[in-house]
Amino acid sequence: MDPDQRRAMIVAAALPLVVEYGASVTTAKIARAAGIGEGTIFRVFEDKDALLAACMAEAVRPDDTVAHLESIALDQPLADRLAEAADVVRGHMARIGAVAGALAAAGRLERVAPKSGKDGRLPDREASLARPRAALAALFEPDRDSLRVTPERLADAFQLTLMSAGRLGAPDPLTTEELVDLFLHGALAAPGDAR
């Protein structure tokens, strides 16, 4: 196994443990989950903080999300495409939140999250949003002639809607179906609609 494969394997084993135990997870526990010796971790990662940073970077990485979005069948109705996409994006955001929350609870997020300038964001934040946004735009494309604005602008608005609707601690979060209906049809009920 080459070093990149070993690194990916260790991170994959560590992610659920980081979510469960936060930064207090031991490298011994991670090594057991990965089926390797503890020393192997330190041949791949400089220290535990480097491993935790790699876990955070993996949680933020949009590759799986983009692949799922790109696999949504374009021959189904737009509302169904968007509902499927919303579930995919919400799952990705939940994964990011779980890892970041676990590390933040232990006061380790600041130490392991790479910084970019004064805003403290991950350096590739825009890139991690751009690829899913492009995949979302492709979901609107079959209906381009029926849309009020371009698929790209709708994808941007839908992505922002999903991000804000997914905030933690919302007292009565919208279901996926409610969110998609609201996005496609607006806030005003048609005459005769029941609430």
UniProtKB/TrEMBL annotation:
Matches recorded under InterPro entries: Homeodomain-like_sf (IPR009057), HTH-type_TetR-like_transc_reg (IPR050109), HTH_TetR (IPR001647)
Leader peptide range in chain numbering: none
Keyword Transcription regulation: yes
Record-level Gene Ontology MF annotations: DNA-binding transcription factor activity; transcription cis-regulatory region binding
Gene3D superfamilies: Tetracycline Repressor, domain 2
A Pfam family reported for this protein in Swiss-Prot or TrEMBL: TetR_N
Protein name: HTH tetR-type domain-containing protein
Species whose genome carries this gene: Streptomyces malaysiensis
